[in-house]
Amino acid sequence: MKCWHCDSDAKAICVFCGRAICAAHRKAKDYFIGYGTKHKSTLLEFSSTTATNIKEASWCGVCAGEDVDTY
Fold first, then answer.
1. What would the pLDDT profile of 29-47 be if each residue is shown by its tens digit?
2. Which residues, 6 or more positions from 18, have their beta carbon under 8 angstroms from its beta carbon?
């Protein structure tokens, strides 16, 4: 697979858009999986987070994410 920017051998895939990227063009960005919070099922239960943050995820530097409200 070749880098989307320069056609050299790719070393990673952008987790946001799927573009192949080489080591020279790879950028890093936080990647969040599963947004929002769980709703309480009873008054005694505490709400908990459902998102996981992957730090330094491979990013192509081209694509842009869009914030979306979750409930």
1. 998 887 666 666 666 666 6
2. none
